[in-house]
Write a structure and sequence with these properties.
CATH superfamily: Hotdog Thioesterase
Organism: Rhodofomes roseus
InterPro entries: 4-hydroxybenzoyl-CoA_TE, HotDog_dom_sf
Oligomer: single chain
Order of helices and strands: EEHEHEEEEEH
Pfam families: 4HBT_2
GO molecular function: fatty acyl-CoA hydrolase activity
Protein name: Thioesterase/thiol ester dehydrase-isomerase
Radius of gyration: 18 Å
Number of strands: 8
Number of helices: 3
Length: 190
């Protein structure tokens, strides 16, 4: 295990001062993940499968919990407690998951605690072109799972979220206020 971790802003001396949680939060924030999405997930014995590691389908749930945490925060920023309640209840304009792809990097076993995180982005075709416009009806959300025991990212995902009008049962343009809030979250970190 390294004795220190260097980020752009901080140096952490692991053996002396930094807990696995602090290290994870610092590293993931530095990588641009939105702190409003940070979701701690304790691994329980029942998360294991016959192959003696956390079953791959469990990660879909872990990402879902973090994504909902992030969505609630975004809804609150856009329209306060009422928008938050409406988004969670599927009233008016909310978000719906269109697709998710998961890249399993390392197996996780009990005991462990994971930090599951997300950050919105414009999509892989926009990585070199930061001037690309945000699509009006959807966006991309990158996720990661950090293992406190392994002190690294163990799983990543990429999702497409669609703005959806639950009253009309159709995808929609969420309006300028939502786009501004989303763009602001795309500028976090690296």
């Amino acid at each position: 295990m390294p004795s220190a971790i260097q980020t752009r802003r901080f140096t952490f001396h692991l053996a002396e001062t930094v807990s696995p949680e602090e290290e994870a939060r610092a590293q993931l924030s530095e990588m641009g993940y939105d702190p409003s999405s940070f979701w701690e997930q304790k691994i329980v014995w029942g998360d294991h499968d016959a192959f003696q590691h956390v079953n791959n389908v469990r990660y879909v749930r872990f990402f879902e919990s973090s994504r909902i945490e992030w969505m609630v925060s975004l809804a609150h920023e856009i329209g306060g407690p009422q928008r938050e309640a409406d988004m969670l209840a599927g009233r008016g304009i909310s978000l719906i998951l269109k697709s998710i792809s998961i890249d399993y990097k390392r197996p996780v076993v009990y005991p462990d605690t994971l930090l599951v995180v997300h950050k919105p982005h414009l999509g892989s075709s926009a990585s070199a072109d930061s001037s690309k416009r945000l699509p009006k009806t959807h966006f991309y959300l990158k996720g990661a799972v950090w293992s406190y025991a392994q002190r690294r990212i163990v799983t990543e995902c990429d999702s497409v979220l669609v703005w959806y009008n639950y009253d009309k049962l159709a995808k929609c343009d969420p309006g300028e206020e939502a786009r501004v809030a989303l763009k602001g979250r795309m500028c976090l970190g690296a």
